[in-house]
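Z., the sequence and structure:
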Amino acid sequence: MKKTFLKTHKTSIIDGHGRQILLKGVNFGGWLMMEAYFVHAANLPQQVFEKEFTLACGAKALSELMGKFRDNFITEADFKQVASWGMNCIRLPFHYKVGVKSVFYLDQAIAWGQKHKVYLILDLHAAYGAQNPDWHSDSLDGKAELWTKKSNRQKTYALWEKLADRYKDETIIAGYDVLNEPVLEDTGLLNEFYRESIKAIRRSDKNHILFIEGKHWAQQIDLLDDFADDNWVYSIHFYEPMEFTFNLIPFMRYPWAGCNKDTLRHRMEGYSRFAQKKQRPVHVGEFGVNYRQGVYNEHLYLQDELKCFNDLGFHWNYWTYKAVKNYMFPDGIYGYYPNSPWVHRQGPKTGWHCWGQLWAKHKNEMTASWSTQAFGLNTHVIEGLKKAV
C-alpha cells in the first residue's frame, strides 16, 4: 500500500491524495513537557520541581509520580474527544528528556492518533540548555544555553536525527515543530541552527513537513532564511494583545478602540503577505485566551481571531487542551476548578510546590484529579472552536 504524507505546495498543505487541507486542532500542553501554571504553581522550570520533589520524597517517588501523571493527564479518550469535535490535528509539546528516555509516550500518542485519525505535530518545547529564558523551555536562572553552548546544539541535532529516523514512515505525523519559541539576538545563529536541524532530519526522513518558528517567541518570521528544503512552513504564535489574552490587565473587555477584528486582521495580514511572497503556508502553533466565563467577551475575541485565521488560510492549534483553572495565562478547553490540597490556591505554596508533602498520603486522589473526567468543559471556548472547525 502506498504511504501518504502531508506536503506543502506553495501556500497550501496537500495530503497524499492531492487534496488541500487545513490543520485545525489543539495543543496537548503540559503532558510531556510539564509547565508550572498548568497545575497552578509559580512559573518556575520543571527541573526546579523535580529537584524539590526528589529532596522531599526521593528519586523513586519522582519516577512514580511522573509516570502516573503522564498515564493519566492525557489518555486515548482525549484523542477520541478531539476527533469527535471535528479537529484533525494535535500539536504535542515534548521535553528533550522524553525524546531520549521516555520515547514510549511519543509512540503511544502516534498509535492513538493513527486509531482516531488525528494528525500529530511533534513540538520540541524544551531543547538541551533551553532555547529561551522562560520556564516553559525548562530554563534555569533565565539562561538560554542552547545558544551559548555548541554542545547543546549538537545534542539537539542528534535528538532530531534519532526521532526522524524512528518516525520517518509514520503517516499520521504531520511534521516536526523544530524548536518552540526561540529567543536570541543573533539571527545568523538561529538560521544556522535551523539549517543544521533540517540536515539532521532529512538524513533519513524526506517525508514530513517541518514547522519553523520565527525569532523572539515565534513572532519574527521575516528574519528567517530561505532554507534549502521544499517541505516546510512558517509557524507563528499569536497572543496579541497579551494584556487581554493573558489577563494581565483585569477587567478588559473585548473589543475596545485599540483591539478589534480589524486590528487583529491587520496584524495577521502582515504575516500572510510575507508568507505568500515566499510561497509558504502559515501555521499558528499557539493562540489562546484566559477563560473568564465569557464575561469579558473572550469568546468574541476567539471568534474574530479564528475567522481571520480561516479567511487567510492559516492552519492552527489552540493553546491548550486542559489546565488547572487560574487567573492568568491561556488556560484550556478544560479547566480543573476544585481547590484540592495539591492546588491550594490560597498559598503560600501552590500547585506542584505542595506535592512533595502530599504524595505519600494522597497519591491516589492526586492521580484521579489529573484525568480529564475531573475537569470542567469551558463551554464558550469549545463552542467557538467547533464553529471554526
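The two ends are 30 Å apart (CA to CA). DSSP finds 14 helices and 14 strands in the chain.

Let me know what you think.
H.
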